[in-house]
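Retro notes
What went well: the complex prediction finally ran end to end.
Inputs used:
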Amino acid sequence: MEEFEKIWINARIVLINENNEITVHENSFIAVKNKKIAKIDKMEKFYDLNANKIFDVENRLITASLIDCHTHLIYGGNRASEFEKRLNGISYEQIAKDGGGIASSIKSTRSESFESIYKNSAKRLEALIKDGVTTLEIKTGYGLDTKSEIKMLNIAKKLEENYPVHIEKTFLGAHAVPIEYKNKSDAYIDYICNEMLDEVNNLGLVTCVDAYCEHLAFSVEQTRRVFEKAKSLGLNVKLHAEQFSSMGATDLACEFKALSVDHLEYINELSIKKMSENNTVAVLLPGAYYFLRETKMPPIELFRKYKVPIAIATDLNPGTSALCSLQLMMNMSAVIFSLNVNEVFLSVTKNAAAALGLENCKGSLEIGFDADFCVWDITHPRDLVCSYLPNSLHYSVQNGEIVNV
Amino acid sequence: MEEFEKIWINARIVLINENNEITVHENSFIAVKNKKIAKIDKMEKFYDLNANKIFDVENRLITASLIDCHTHLIYGGNRASEFEKRLNGISYEQIAKDGGGIASSIKSTRSESFESIYKNSAKRLEALIKDGVTTLEIKTGYGLDTKSEIKMLNIAKKLEENYPVHIEKTFLGAHAVPIEYKNKSDAYIDYICNEMLDEVNNLGLVTCVDAYCEHLAFSVEQTRRVFEKAKSLGLNVKLHAEQFSSMGATDLACEFKALSVDHLEYINELSIKKMSENNTVAVLLPGAYYFLRETKMPPIELFRKYKVPIAIATDLNPGTSALCSLQLMMNMSAVIFSLNVNEVFLSVTKNAAAALGLENCKGSLEIGFDADFCVWDITHPRDLVCSYLPNSLHYSVQNGEIVNV
C-alpha cells in the first residue's frame, strides 16, 4: 500500500499535455508527500493508497495555482489623487511637473514607515491570494537608494514569512532616475553597478535583476551595464521594454538570456524571433494597456508564429495598473488581446513559472513539482477566462497546506 | 438623553451635499433606529446619546452602500463555451446559427431546475454583496413564457429572503423573440400584453417593466404597446435603448416617464434633452462596452450639459457582460468613460437609487433613509474609482444589520 500525507479525492484535474494543451481528467485524485505532488490518477486506482488526511473536493476542478509573474506590489502612498486629477482634465505633464508620477511613489516609499508600507502591501497580497495566486514576483524600484531598496526587499521577505506564498524578489534599481540624480543618469547607473547591486545582493534575497529600457527611463547601453553587473553576480535578468517605442532593447535582453521581456507593444518581428531562439517569455500586461487606454496591441500573431511562450501578469502598481486581480487579467487578456482559453491558462501557470525561472517546480501539476494548486467552484478553466466571478476560488493549497486568508 | 438601537462611531462619513458633491465628514458617528438612519453628527456630540450596541469603526470610511441598478443575474447555464468559440475565430453569426447567443440562455433557463439556477445565481449575488452592494435590480427575460418568467421571479424572491439585500424585480418579457414565435414578434407582444404581464403582475413581485428596443429585438411601436400595458397595471417602465443604433426609443421612454434608459451609446442630443426634462436616469454599462469591444462611447459631455443623472451598473449577464463586480464597473467608468470621482460615486449610489425609483429611501446617508451603508478599508471614495482592490470592503450594513456573507 502506497503511503501519502494528504490526498484530494473526487476531483476534476486540469493537466497540461506535451503539446501545451490543457486536458481535464474526470474522477481523479492528487496525492501529496513532502510538500510535493506525489501521484495523480483516476479514482478507481485510489483504493490501494493510504494518507493521514483525505479531502473530498466533491467533483470540483483542480488546477495548478496561479502565478503573478510581474508586480510592483510594495509601495508607499497611492496615486489615486493623481488619477483623479487626470479625470478632472489636468494633463499628465502638469501632474509630473507637480511631483506626481513615479517620483511621487519614490518619495512615499522612502519616507513611509516599514510597518505602514507592509500593512498596505499585505492588503494587496491578500487580494491576490484570494484570487488563487500562491507564487508571485515583487519588484523593488520605488526606493532607488540602497537603504530604501533594502527596505522594500525586507517587506517582501516579511510578507513571505507571514503569508502562504512564494515570492520571487526582483531588483529594479533601474526603474527611474531618482531626483538627486536628475540629468545624471549615467552617474545613477554607476551607483547601481558599483554600490547598490552589491549591497542588495549580499542580502541573498534577490534572484533576478530588471530594468526599464525606454526613452523616458534608461538607454540600451545603460541597461547593458546593469545586466553585465547582474550576470557577474550570478543573477538572472529580465526587462521592461518596447512599451511605448521600439528601441531594440529586447535584443539586448536576449543576448543576456533574459528570463522574460515584459510589455512589448512595440516589439518587431526580428526581436520576437530572437526571443523564440532564447526561449525568453513574453510577459504581456493587459492591465497597464487598459489603464493607460493604449491602442497599439502587442503583436500576438507573431508571438504565436514564433512559438514564444506568453505570460500574463497584473503589473500591479499605483500609477499605471492599480488593479489587484490576476483573474481579471485573465479576462482582459481574452477580451482585449484575444488570447484563447488555452493560451490564457498557460499564461498564468506554466509560462508564468518560466518567466520566473521556476518551470521545473511550479506552474503545472506534475509529479515532483511543488504541491501548489487551486480548488475551484467552476467546471472548466474557460470559466476563469470568459467571465469574471471574483469568488470562484473554493480554496487553494500551497506547499501542501490549505490556504486560509 | 437620545436613545438609538445602534451607533457606529469614530467614522469618516461620506455625504452628498445639495450640489450633488461628495463631502467627507471626519470624526463622526451614524445612529440607527427602526432600521433607518436616525442621526449623523460629529463625535463631540456623541456623549448625550445611548444605544444598545456601539460599533467602533476606528476611523474607517462609511458611505451609502452600493446599488447595482441593472442586472440579469438570474439565468440558467453559462455562455463561456460560446465566448471561447469567438476567441477561436468562429463568427458571432455562426454561433447564433448554432443556437448560441441569448437563445441559448433562454433554453437553459427554461430547462434547468429552480434549485440549480438558484445555486448559481446565489454565487453571483454573494460576489456582489462582498463588493458592498445591498440593493440591486434583477430582470427577468430568459424565460419568455409565463411559467419560466415566474420561475425567475420566484428565484429572485428566494434570494431576497436568504440574503441581506433588497432586490427590485423588473419584468423583461420583451427581451428577445423566443423560438416558438420566430418571425411572429407581434404575436409575441400580444402574448406579453394579453396574458403574461397580467399573470406576472398578479404575483405582486414586479415593480417595473423593461424592454429591449433595438433592430435585433423589438420596434418602437412594439415597445409602446408593452409600456401602455405596464402603465395600465400601475407599473414603472425603463428601457434598453440606443445600444447599437439610434431608433428614437428614448423619446418613447420619456413619454412614459421611464425611470431610466440604459446603454445609450447612440443617443442623440434631442433625446438627451427629453431625458433631462423628465428626470430620467441614464444608466451606462461599461462592462458591456468593454466585453463587446465597442468603440462608440455614450455622449458623456451631453449628459453633463443637460444635467441628466448618470448611473452605472454591471449589466451582469452571461453573454455580453459576464463581470460580477460593481467596484470593477466604477473603475471602468472612470478609465473607459472618463467619468470623474464624484460622478462615479453618485452613479452607484444616489443616481442608481433614482434609476430604481428608490431615491426617497436609498442611495444616500440621510435621516430617515434605510440604514444601508458600507464600512471601507479605504480613505476616500476616489480609492474605489482610481484602483481596483476587491477586498476594500470591511463590512456592510443592510437595514441596520451587519452583513456576513
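What we learned: Residues 260 and 281 of chain A are 4 Å apart (CA to CA).
What to try next: split runs per interface for comparison.
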